[in-house]
Amino acid sequence: MSTKPQFDNVKSLNDPQFLHNWKMDIKFPSKGTYPDPDAISWRVLTSDIPTASVLHASMTVRGHTVAYPSGIVKYTETLAMTFIEDKDGTVKEFMRQWREACAETRTGKAGKKSEVEARITLTMLDTQDNSTFSITLYGCMYENSNLNSLENGSAANMQQPQLTIRYDIFEDKKGG
Fold first, then answer.
1. pTM score above 0.85
2. Residue 152 CA, distance from chain mean position
3. Whole-number Cα distances in Å, 36 to 25, 40, 81, 147, 162
4. What domains can you pick out in the chain, each with its CATH number?
5. Helix (H, G, I), strand (E, B), or coil: what is residue 117?
6. Based on CB atoms within 10 Å of each CB, which residue in 41, 70, 95, 125 is the most buried?
7. How many CB atoms lie within 10 A of CB 32?
8. Shortest CA distance to 168 belongs to which of 104, 73, 83, 87?
């Protein structure tokens, strides 16, 4: 038997979670030749959300296939983020210098993983700038970047460089 919801029932529902703002924090084990990431105004416009899939092993018994968790987790491994560039071009310069630290484009010399990998934390903020959810990516390395369109235009056409990183593993949690 269903009943109509009462006003008190509706008032007791939790507010829906709206996606407001994302804050990004990037840490390197040692400062390289790239700009200090703490000095950059990271305005993340869009970001992928990393995913983890639990792989299963299966066994067939008398014609029936049964799946068992294998204990192996497969991560998406890459994550794309779009930023709003400031007038000084610090985001583009950071991406260029991180790329060069990972692999020098003129010589092909590869950087050491321990020197070029980063830890990136994406934190979702509510309307009061309180942390509601965070994702920390470990073993992050530069994969590629895209400056998007380089067009003449008005102030409405702000530059939005995109960075794709490769990561080893991530942890997500409620709060900050």
1. no
2. 29
3. 11, 7, 19, 20, 19
4. 17-51+78-174 (2.30.110)
5. coil
6. 95
7. 17
8. 73
